[in-house]
Structures are given as structure tokens and as C-alpha cells.
Design brief:
The chain has about 325 residues and is an alpha/beta fold. The protein is built from 11 helices and 14 strands. It is about 35% helix and about 25% strand.
Amino acid sequence: MNIGIIGCGAVGTKRALALGDNKLIIVVDSDLSKAEKLAKTMKIPNFSNKPDDAIQNDEIDMIIISTTNDYLAELTLAAVSNKKHVLVEKPAGRNADELIPIILEAKKNRVCVKVGFNHRFHPALLKAKEFVKSNALGKLMYIRGRYGHGGRLGYEKEWRANPAKSGGGELIDQGVHLIDLSRWFLGDLDVINSYEHTYFWDMPVDDNAFLMLKNSKDQVAWLHVSCTEWKNMFSFEIFGKKGKLMIEGLGGSYGMETLTYYKMSPKMGIPEIGTWKYNSKTDESWKRELDYFIQCINIHKKPEGDISDAKKALDIVKKVYANR
């Protein structure tokens, strides 16, 4: 596909480097120097600080949008109005209401909008999904997820700490990944109990959020996200009546990505344990997600992790913030 990228920061660069055989036509950033830098990296001539140079380009099939949260929905709506497929970074907007016009316009123009839930495409989580589909765990009971980092000097002055730009704090940042993964395994969830608070950072958004979510089958997701973790960490555990899966790490500063399967013995007691370690030097989840999205477009299939899934995740975020 012919692709344009709007937003040339760290994530936009990762997306560009994961394009594979697809053709990058233009890169755009409000900071023209960032666009120029990425264009040079990708060895293409076209860069701009005007989003319309990508959105209104008839040569382009898909737009990748990786800006700050306050522009995600606006640019996505403009792109689908111009009949472009879109891969927009999570959370796809500052709140669920911003996504409603996108859903309607995408349906009207018969284009697909995939949201950047790349965690679904990490190898340990893909393997976990295979286990669950094969009924290796039996009926699922609950999920326990933790995700966090420790911020950095000046974190409270960055755009993520500005609610007008971000829409919220740690809950809308890393929290939507845990919510999305929980929905991927358990289906639609509702908020049973929650608490979000700012413990450390001097900012008007939350730095910790605690959630208890439940579906219609009484399956629970118990989640905690934090930017006072001090040491980056990711932990996602799936409990079934016949065993348990534990995913730890995401590579890089989050530690080696590992999946551990605890298979319950018929006599209970010590389980049979199997472990898979993924020591890749590069994070292939970005490429897997794009490849999957393009495959869905080509066969006219609604992708998982799309704009509707993002809205349902943000509906949960909205309820948590309403409980303040």
C-alpha cells in the first residue's frame, strides 16, 4: 500500500521502520525539522508540516497517525472523510465521544480504522491467545494485569500531563492497553470499582489507576497502571479452571518477554510448567500489526482492535474518571 505518516516522533518513526514492502509517500509533522529528519531516514523526498498534504493526496491508500492525543481524532476523521484507511495510535482520541463521528464516517465511506493496540501482536500474547483458543486453560475465571513505568525528570511538564492535550493521565496512556488486552480475552467489560489518584507527580492528571472490571459471565479483570513504578514493568496473568498463563516483560527496559504456562495436575498440587522466552532485539509487534491490518483491508474483513474497540476502552476510562 501507499502510506503517509502524520506525526514523526518516536512512535511515528517506529511505524515508518516497520512498513516492510509498503511504499512511504510522505511524512508530516507540525515540527518540520522532525518530518525532514524522518524523510531522510526513510530516503524519501516528500515531507511537510501540513496534514492535508497527506490526507488529500490521491496517491495514498492509508494514513498512519501518531500525534499527541488532542489531534488523533481530528486527523483520523479528516482522513476517513477523504476515503483513506487509517492506523491511528491509541487511545485514538481524548475521550469516547471524539470517536463517534469517526465510526459513522468510516462506515459511510467503507474504510477501515485500526487503532494502535500493538501489544496484541507481541509474541507472548499471541501465544497466550492460542492457548486460550485451544481451551488449554479451560473456562477463564479472571485476569490480573499490571503495567507501569517511572516517568523521568520533567515528566509533569510533558504533554501527557496536560489534560487538554492528553485527555487524562496514566489510565488513558498505558491503561488503555491493559483494558484492550482484557477485552481481547474476556469480551465486553464494565466498571465494577475503580480509583485513580495522583500520588507523586505534580500534575492535574492521574499517575496511578486501579480498576476492577467484569463481564456478563462474572469474569473479572483486576488492573493497575502506574507511572510511579520506578522500574518499568509489564505483567499480565490469565487464570482458567485448568491452568494459568503469565506474561512478563515486553522487551527492552521492560525486561525479556516471557510466557509461562502453569498446567494444573488432575491431582492438583505442583503444576506442570512450560516457559517460552522471546529475546528478539527488535520489537516486531509494529510490523505484525500493520501486516494484519493490510490483510484485513485486502479481504474486506473488520480488523480486531479497531476504532469501535478503542471507543469501548475509552467508555471504561470515562466511567473511571466519572467516579472521582
